[in-house]
Amino acid sequence: MTNSTAPAAIPVILDVDTGVDDALAILFALAHPGINVLGISCVAGNASLERVVENTLRILDVADAPTIPVAAGARRPLLEPARSAAHVHGEGGLGTLQLPPTNRQAEPISSIELMHRLIRASPHPVTLVGLAPQTNLALLLRQYPDVVENIERIVFMGGSTTVGNATAVAEFNVWHDPEAAAIVLDSGVPTFMYGLDVFNQVAIPELAANALVASTTNLAHVVGRLLSNRIALGPGRDAEYTGLIGDAGALCALVDPDGLTTSMLPLRVQLSGYGRGQTLVDKRIHPGEDTVHGLSGDWEAAEVALDVDVDRYVHLFLDTLGLSSALPQTA
Length: 331
Description:
Elements: E1 10-16, H1 20-31, E2 35-42, H2 49-62, E3 70-72, H3 86-89, H4 111-121, E4 126-130, H5 135-143, E5 151-157, H6 172-176, H7 178-185, E6 191-194, H8 196-199, H9 206-213, H10 218-227, E7 231-232, E8 239-240, H11 248-255, E9 260-269, E10 279-281, H12 289-292, E11 300-308, H13 310-320
Parallel strand pairs: 1-2, 1-4, 2-3, 4-5, 5-6, 6-11
Antiparallel strand pairs: 7-8, 9-10, 9-11
Helix pairs in contact: 1-11, 4-5, 5-7, 9-10
């Protein structure tokens, strides 16, 4: 039985496919006093599994982190082959950033086994933060259903209430493994969706990113380089600056939920057709014809982020990393 006394910091396991934005999220999580990172689970997504593990270990060096267990999980989705996001994150996963080799080693067990051990050993319920395709989380919940009793909730970056990026309607993390996302939503664990709608809003000004790149401090320089990763937002288009903190926004939501507008809404994942991977979010106030005529089927309820205080999260992100001085000063 877990101790009911609230912990000083939220015990968290990160599930990542460490590309540019996962790296920013890891750095934020390690720096924030309200988060206790118990371990990091890796899955193929933004890059190959081997690359994701190596990137994660090297980012721990950037953060000068203590020993934190990191383990490799799924190499591919439950049903489909792995798909690369090299056009966004580069072949190495961290854009053009090259980090020096690390002496850190991944755990000799799978990330599913690592998560199981950490959750069972925690004196307080653990929050799983999924920043990647949810294959590892689905495998954990199916292989070790007993962990549910010691999981506080699952906070995931994924899905969208509006537009997609992998397809016109589907966000990459959910699209990469829709079956896994459906399993997580159906697990009975409370879920919180930080979707593409809010993900695409929280950006650091380019002047601030440039100032960080020019810094002689390694952490500041690395954060600046990650923020400055330029993305070609369509065929034939030049790569553009976005400055998005990306997955780090889901960690901001964890420690500062008042920076978001959220609602408990019916949510499910589309598993077939062109809409495969789309998160269907029912924002209707009144039941529709599908409900009246018994056609709606079963929907799970999730807390869904609908809007974000961009300035609040920009400052939270930079303040946590001790980098707020990079922001342009206003009169």
